[in-house]
Amino acid sequence: MSERVAFGSRSLHLKKSRKGLPGYHGQHPDCKRRKEKKTGDVAILKRDDRYVYYLITKSKYFYKPTYDNLRKSLEAMKIHSLKNAVTRISMPKIGCGLDRLDWNKVSTMLEEVFEDTDVYITVYTL
């Protein structure tokens, strides 16, 4: 995700509604406020007892992320998850679709970042 994050707006470049997820169509109290994040940060939405993490890995949506920026975002997600007792995270093969990062490198990075934690990560594919 790029630096300019506007939850609940077209800035997320989403074409379909994702019913039940926060951050879309004004479902979350933070949706109306613009959140300025920098590359390497993580934007976080809370819904009930769950968190939705948006990794900020590039400054513009059409740029490609670097492995370094991905690692910084993962580290930021790790810090938040540990502070908030998050023990399970589900995610797609991040950075490996249109962003063209190598999944072998990304999966190794995930293991390295979360190796000293009890956070269980599930990676899914569609």
UniProtKB/TrEMBL annotation:
It comes from the Eukaryota. Signal peptide: none annotated. Residues 1-126 form the Macro domain. PANTHER family: ADP-RIBOSE GLYCOHYDROLASE OARD1, PROTEIN C6ORF130. This is ADP-ribose glycohydrolase OARD1 isoform X5. It comes from Pogona vitticeps.
